[in-house]
Amino acid sequence: MSLSLVLKVNSVGDQVRFGGKHSHFGYCEIHSVFNNAVNFYIKRDTILSLVTRSVGGGPNNIVIDVDSLSFVKSIYMDKSKIVLNDSFICDIESSLQYNSDLFIVSKDLELFKKGLGKFEDILRKKAPALSAAFLIDKRRLNFFITPFEKNLAYSLDLFSNEVLDGKLESVSRLKGLGFGLTPQGDDILDGFMIALLVYEKLTGANTGDIRKKIFNLSRGSNIISDTFLYYASLGLLYERVKTLVLSLFLNDPVIIENAVSKLLNIGETSGADISTGFLLMSKKLMQGGIKWL
Amino acid sequence: MVVKGIIKKGEYYDSVTLMLVARDATALDGVKDAAVVMGTEQNKSILETSGLLLDMFKDASDSDLLIAVKAESEEAANKAFEKIEQLLKETRSKAKEAGEYMPKSLEGALEYMPDANMVIISVAGKYAGDEAMKALEHGLHVMLFSDNVPLNKEIELKKYARDNGLLVMGPDCGTAIINGAPLCFANVVERGNIGIVAASGTGLQEVSSVITNEGAGISQAIGTGGRDVKKDVGGIMFIEGMKALEEDPDTKYIVLVSKPPHPDVLKKIADLIKSEIKKPVVGIFLGGDPEVVKGAGAIPANTLEEAGLIAASLAKGKSLDEFKKLLEEREKEILAIADRESKNKKEGQKYVRGLYTGGTLCDEAMLLSRQIIGEVYGNAPLNPEYKLKDSWISQENTFVDLGEDEFTVGRPHPMIDFTLRNKKIIEEAKDPSVAVILLDVVLGYGSNMKPGEELSPAIKEAREIAEKDGRNITFVASITGTDKDPQDRSKVKKQLEDVGVIVMPSNAAAAKLSSYIVKNLGGAK
Amino acid sequence: MRKISDLFKQELKVINIGLLSFKESLDDVGVKVIQVDWRPPAGGDQEVMDALKKLLGK
């Protein structure tokens, strides 16, 4: 190593284990590099993500204190550190742990409903044009132009409503539907599971089995999607989602707005798609209209 | 109808990128539908519904990228693939260079770049003010490119900025140079010890380019927007900009560029020069009385070029007398060229047509020409009586500013899009009374990237039209810019000279030359 | 008290809200710049925007 620089590690997710069963020594295979995230494999079946501060903590995230990660070309890992490009050392051993569990102190359903209302208002206004937010605001269908896009919107609408109506088989039809690394359908399912988790925390009803069912039905070969759906099924949340959920109980529109804005900054439409799924399922649950619970 | 497809492995894109790429392909002639998606079973079923599913896609996996196109012909389909490949490639290289993280708000951006210190705002005027205030509240300096920001909003922003030690450049500020960085429509200039405060964008560009071309350099160039020096705003930022340059140890000389400020503002400027400014100040208030500038304690300049030359001379340690000599020599040279060019004209050829893209440059040209050939016509003339009845039809000596709204509605600014001016050049060449066609070429970021290539054919064609009629038209141009600009001033100069254009070192010199030719030919009022 | 001239001693770091070409030209000369993917608030409707502001207590 000719040049060594120490990069500050802001947090390491609670599902990232060093030295245990999932530990890995040596160079890791990189899955994909984005400006604010680098996804890489551990033992072929697990994905960890190096992310910038702007993305924030997550069960499998390692948050590095840098503006951009697009420079990453190689990742070496041992039990105490990660080395990028054979030059930049990230000290894992002494870093803070991000806790992905969700604790909600309030059990106030009315407060939550009010928060959801505000959340919906903001989402209608701020969600990007091509996101799944058309499911809560039909006027947004005008953004879908080509025949393929129209067919896609139709299918997203159909299958997400079938799932909401309790038709669990449709999970596998929703999964994988849409563009991008994490298709809209996957993000909607993620939102559904987050809503189920919040409902469990609020009412004490067990939604864990359903979440696991949804995950099992949705499994495919997209390891990135599978990873975050897996964590959602376990009730483990990413920082931005957690912030949003908690903000809904604070009865403060400015805080909610800020939290929504941060969530909407994920990917191009992912944040809005997760939000849409979360909102739809939460509303359904609040109406008590879900048969299979 | 044909349906064609490609599979790509190991390439990942964000959803909107893929949607927009497919959409751009669908917009091509002969293309009916296109999809660029990951190869999930579910996406395949939509491809099927859309008549886009090909056999080759059946074994594709979730992590493969599928590209499908339905088109009227093989050829159209291939064009669509080319387009898609090209767009994806651009996305990839952009993502590599600058990253694809794009926050949705100022707050998001700050999270990503907490130590940002400048915000450039170019969104529609009705929103721009609010965004600017938000930036100021976060302690950020603002460059407000947008126009149509309400006057009271401008005053509110500038008062807040003044009270908090921040800059608000604009609204309607097209250019600035901060810490050597060209912002918006600015030229790549040498760094040096001359600071500029300007209430005119093109004026700032001309002065900073002249300074660079003379071998001196710029420390900071602060734009204020034209409304700053009027009565209502009261010169808030002009004054603050001057103070900042006085405090800046890297600035040794200060140049002020503006149309004549409101008398109240002028008084404030004069008071400031007398009380606080210790550095030499050069002032060009286009169309104003140089004595007023002198009275305010500044060295007066008659033209933008002069302002640049004086500052550059000072920076190079030369005296004002040496500068005056230089100016006299240049004047003699202009007269000599004018005499030469007056000789090859046909009877009746005696007028100048100035076709301008820069408003300030057009104003300056009219001011100088008026002194030599009397009043000139235009769409925005100095004397309202000389306003053209129809801005599209020139008469006698005419200077048009093609950047005025009447010409720019629905099309890019003429500094970027040369189509309109090229058309005008050819039209003017058909008029047997035209002796000189005068042009400004503004280089720098934001302007047309190939001015030489795009102007030359029109000039050639115009020449041919005149020559068929036995006439010779003199083309005079000035190039606002430097050799470090992406277009490269020397290269553009060569290209224009190759089609017979006389390229002058400044707009003032070009305007004077044109006017002297007209005067020689008897075209003066 | 902050002063404008302090800016001249710092590295310029820019947030660009609006025309992408302004970001690209700064990229070109090596200035750090981040683009905001800006959309008109509340769908571009002034009334809704005012209402939103009120809602947010601004």
General description of the model:
The complex is a heterotrimer of chains A (293), B (525) and C (58). Chain A has 293 residues and is α/β, with parallel strands linked by helices. Chain A has two domains: 5-98, no CATH class; 109-286, no CATH class. Chain A is 41% helix and 15% strand. Chain A has nine helices and eleven strands. Chain A has helices at residues 109-126, 147-164, 171-174, 184-203, 208-218, 223-234, 239-247, 253-264, 270-286; strands at 5-7, 9-13, 26-28, 30-33, 37-42, 46-52, 61-64, 75-77, 81-84, 88-91, 97-98. In chain A, the strands form two sheets. A six-stranded mixed sheet of chain A has the order 4-5-6-7-2-11, covered by helices on one side. A five-stranded mixed sheet of chain A has the order 1-10-9-8-3, with no helix packed on it. In chain A, β9 (81-84) and β10 (88-91) form a beta hairpin. The N and C termini of chain A lie far apart (56 Å). The relative contact order of chain A is 0.14. Chain B starts with a strand and ends with a helix. The longest helix of chain B is centred in the first third of the chain and has 25 residues, at 74-98. In chain B, 44% of the residues lie in helices and 19% in strands. Chain B folds into three domains: 2-98, Gyrase A, domain 2 (2-Layer Sandwich), CATH 3.30.1360; 114-323, Rossmann fold, CATH 3.40.50.261; 329-521, Succinyl-CoA synthetase domains (Rossmann fold). Chain B is globular. Chain B has 18 helices and 19 strands. In chain B, the strands form five sheets. Chain B has a six-stranded parallel sheet with strand order 15-16-14-17-18-19, sandwiched between helices. In chain B, β9 (191-198), α7 and β10 (218-223) form a beta-alpha-beta unit. Chain B is α/β, with parallel strands linked by helices and 525 residues long. In chain B, α5 (125-137) runs parallel beside α6 (151-163). The model of chain B is unreliable at 95-100 (pLDDT under 50). Chain C is α+β, with helices and mostly antiparallel strands and 58 residues long. Chain C has one domain (11-55). Chain C is built from two helices and two strands. A two-stranded parallel ribbon of chain C has the order 1-2. Chains B and C meet through α4, β4, α5, β8 and α8 of B and β1, α1 and β2 of C. β4 of chain B pairs parallel with β1 of chain C, so a sheet runs across the interface.
